[in-house]
Design goal:
By secondary structure, this protein is mostly helical. 83% of the residues lie in helices and 0% in strands. It is globular.
């Protein structure tokens, strides 16, 4: 299978590009934090959240349809003209509805964002248009197997453009203020769209072919995601809005510093998982190789990746204090603890991301709707109860509960559907939570380091009893293109872990 053979290099490209973008992200955040301060930094976050609000409220529900139906069309017909035409049609009417709604309530929205210039609403609408086109380009690049290009544009190029824009402030070419920072982010999106179009062959998209039957299928598939998108927005931004309501704009900035780094790291790793494995699962489903999904993916891959995410988060937790002090300075020191709480949820989020390709491929959007509504309502109630009492820590704990509970529910739903009884993937999020407790404890850093390293070794040895790595996994590696040194190291780990004591 071509998707499986290329999976290692696709994932390596995603991680590698993400790693290269980290210094650019740090530079951008450093300049914004030091020049703007917590209050203005929080306002930038709120303005960009308005663009996200409009996109998630009325347009993001169509996003998955490009990959779901475009991949199917591309495999059969070597283009996605029908999917593109129908997606653009649905997006056009959705766009008109969204901006009509926004224009009707623009004064209330702009007042909440503390924007006095009413004409700025057109900037937000333009940002919505750019975000819609950018997401379309990203999804098309995934469908036509230009994952490395998509990764470069999404992770590295966007950071390059933003960093170059930030340099205008460093060299005093522009006076730094909230609106200029927003303009730089929008200009970055515009450049991403232009570069992305350059890599997509014209014959893949044109001439557009409108298909009423496919239009109906895309609408039926996507419509439940409309409400799921609203819930997704609530889960992503309700913390910020509740903090703004009960606390201050400065607290918004402090919390957003934590949430932004968390969201960036989550996107780097978890989005890469979805990007790599979705084509694999779609091909297996199309070829009716359900046994492979069950025995290879659910029972082997998910627990193994869950283990590696546990190790990754442990390292991040240990580096957090120094990293935040370097990036944001002492004025954002209260961002550290919320970040540690948030980043721990990525262990649960990894499971959710690994299950997303199955959810998409098997058209489980209705269940996604129900769980999305549950997550949104739960997050809102938890924030209202916890933020007034515990401040931004209350918002972090509310997110921890939501980001932890939903993946576990999905895990049991999918396991039941495929009659899988292996639960070992849930062990590692538990140990990640233990790592969080160790890391926030009032003990010396050296003791945290020693205890964490010891726990990693213990978890690795204990994993052998749960058959985490199996000698049969060596055969799977022969179907994946990767450097021989990496393959030998992985085989060594498999043999050590699977050795019978």
């Amino acid at each position: 299978m071509r998707e499986l053979r290329k999976s290692f290099w696709d994932f390596t490209a995603i991680l590698g590009t993400s790693a290269l973008s980290v210094p650019l992200m740090i530079f951008s955040e450093y300049i914004q934090a030091h020049y703007l301060g917590p209050e203005k930094y929080g306002q930038v976050a709120l303005i960009l959240s308005a663009v996200s609000l409009l996109f998630l409220f009325g347009l993001s529900w169509l996003r998955l349809s490009i990959l779901r139906f475009g991949k199917e069309e591309f495999i059969k017909e070597h283009h996605l003209r029908k999917t593109s035409a129908n997606f653009l049609t649905l997006s056009f009417f959705s766009f008109l509805i969204v901006i009509s709604f926004f224009y009707s309530f623009n004064k209330e929205i702009l007042n909440f964002l503390e924007i006095k210039n009413q004409s700025f609403l057109w900037v937000i609408i333009f940002g919505l248009l750019l975000m819609t086109l950018k997401i379309f380009i990203f999804e098309v690049l995934k469908v036509v197997r230009l994952i490395k290009v998509q990764t470069f544009l999404m992770r590295l190029a966007s950071k390059i453009f933003v960093s170059l824009g930030i340099l205008l402030f460093v060299f005093n070419i522009l006076e730094i203020n909230v609106f200029y920072v927003v303009y730089i982010f929008l200009l970055s999106d515009f450049l991403i769209i232009i570069v992305g179009l350059f890599f997509i062959k014209i014959r893949y998209l044109f001439p557009l072919q409108f298909d009423k039957i496919l239009l109906k299928r895309m609408f039926i598939f996507s419509f439940p995601l409309l409400f799921s998108s609203w819930s997704s927005y609530i889960v992503t931004w309700v913390d910020t809005y509740v903090i703004k309501y009960f606390l201050t704009l400065e607290k918004v900035g402090i919390y957003q510093a934590a949430y932004k780094i968390f969201n960036t790291l989550r996107s780097f790793i978890l989005t890469g998982i979805v990007t790599v494995f979705t084509p694999i699962i779609m091909v297996l489903k199309t070829e009716n190789r359900i046994d492979k999904i069950k025995k290879f993916y659910l029972m082997r891959i998910i627990p193994q990746i869950s283990f590696f995410i546990f190790v990754t988060i442990t390292i991040i937790l240990l580096l957090t204090d120094s990293a935040f002090r370097f990036i944001y300075g002492n004025s954002f020191h209260n961002s550290v603890l919320p970040f540690k709480i948030l980043i721990t949820t990525m262990s649960f989020g990894a499971i959710s991301s690994l299950l997303t390709p199955i959810i998409t491929s098997f058209d489980m959007t209705k269940k996604m709707l129900y769980l999305g509504i549950f997550a949104g309502v739960f997050n809102l109630v938890a924030d209202v109860l916890l933020v007034p009492r515990f401040g931004i820590l209350g918002a972090a704990f509310a997110s921890f509960l939501v980001f932890s509970v939903n993946p576990v529910i999905w895990f049991f739903i999918i396991n039941k559907k495929f009659d899988v009884h292996r639960k070992s993937a849930l062990i590692f999020p538990f140990f990640t939570t233990v790592m969080l407790v160790i890391n926030i404890a009032n003990i010396h850093f050296i003791f945290k380091l020693v205890i964490s390293a010891f726990l990693i070794v213990v978890v690795f040895l204990v994993s052998g009893k749960f058959n985490l790595f199996n000698k049969n996994d060596v055969e799977l590696l022969n179907n994946i293109n990767m450097p021989q040194l990496v393959k030998k190291i992985y085989i060594f780990l498999i043999r050590v872990s699977s050795e019978k004591k």
